Amino acid sequence: MRGALYLTGALLAAGLxxxxxxxxxxxxxxxxxxxxxxxxxxxxxxxxxxxxxPHLAGQVExxxxxxxxxxxxxxxxxxxxxxxxxxxxxxxxxxxAAFYSSLKP
Length: 105
Hints:
InterPro entries: Cyt_c-like_dom, Cyt_c-like_dom_sf, Cytochrome_c_Oxidase_Subunit. The protein is mainly alpha-helical.
């Protein structure tokens, strides 16, 4: 399975054999590095220390992707999150979601 994901990513990068918009597997380690900017509110372990910031550890990956995309576009309103999500790339969002969903709640 893992080899198939890498092959899919390689084909996508080469522009071969995959439909437009095909996804590449997320990288939880890259998400961990990107999460450094999230830790002040959500904690590096995904367990928030602030009552207004939700815990992210163990959250469903697809939910996190959907939420971050909504914050990025402004469809979901929160001043701080809108600012933080705006510069995120699709890969950043996927990687962050993979990282936080991999943590124990």
